[in-house]
Design a protein that fits this description.
- The chain is α/β, with parallel strands linked by helices.
- The chain contains eight helices and nine strands.
- Helix content is 32%, strand content 16%.
- α1 (31-42) links the parallel β1 and β2.
- α1 (31-42) runs parallel beside α2 and α3 (87-96) packs across α4.
Length: 242
């Protein structure tokens, strides 16, 4: 019997094209900007995949609206959505669990704005469905030629994908990247606010940082929600429209 390599699913039949993949950087409470990016710029088609890199809450005006929109996206059946946890979600969850140190840090990094968007005074008063939604988020996603994570990986370990701690994946800001230790994949992350020209320059490297400080409206070089088209390795973006 002759071995025949199966055709990719987009070569015929159910798909008429190769599904697209997008990674979206830190949203930080900018619900209208996120919805505009997805619905009017990306315009996902059947079987496309959207990955979100964390930090959905704090700093912007509508953290609750961001989480509502994300939960609505998860209900869609025509395309897939994956959401990773960011350090701001972790701080909120720790504050809700009674961690006073985390609560103080969270308040100093936009937590009060998140409470205001929910109309509550304490993290533990945020409705359970939102806390559970954030708690269920993953830390890392291996996607063919990419590694997706909120902040970074620990390249001092033997296997950064397997051995990086949650602290590294949510808080790292080091520039150390060794592609050979992650299967020569490209590391895609957010967390560190990066001017747009540097994000564009990083497209030819093995680490792409997509956090452009979406909430920082009107600051030249910043203030856009940035997505990476993972198939074409090109950027699509939406300026803050809150």
């Amino acid at each position: 019997m002759t071995n025949v390599k199966p055709s990719p699913p987009w070569a015929g039949g159910r798909f008429s094209r190769k599904p697209r993949r997008f990674a979206i950087g830190d949203v930080h409470g900018c619900s209208r900007t996120l919805q505009t990016l997805v619905e009017e710029v990306i315009r996902p088609e059947p079987d496309d995949v959207i990955f979100l890199l964390g930090d959905y809450i704090d700093r912007g005006p509508d953290s609750k609206g961001v989480l509502n929109y994300l939960m609505a996206l998860f209900e869609r059946e025509d395309f897939l959505v994956f959401s990773l946890m960011g350090n701001h979600e972790e701080l909120c969850l720790k504050a809700a669990a009674g961690d006073k140190v985390a609560e103080k840090i969270w308040y100093g990094n936009g937590g009060y704005g998140t409470l205001q968007s929910f109309g509550v005074g304490r993290a533990e008063d945020i409705p359970t469905k939102y806390l559970n939604f954030m708690a269920a988020m993953g830390r890392i996603k291996v996607e063919n030629n990419y590694i997706l994570v909120h902040a970074g990986l620990d390249f001092a370990t033997e296997d950064p994908i397997r051995d990086s701690s949650s602290e590294f994946m949510l808080w790292d800001r080091s520039e150390r990247v060794q592609p050979v230790h992650i299967g020569d994949r490209t590391l895609v992350c957010g967390h560190t606010v990066t001017p747009l020209f540097q994000i564009k320059e990083s497209l030819t490297t093995r680490v792409i940082r997509l956090d452009n400080g979406c909430y920082d409206k009107g600051h030249m070089g910043y203030g856009s929600l940035v997505a990476l088209d993972m198939n074409s390795r090109e950027l699509v973006l939406q300026e803050n429209c809150e």
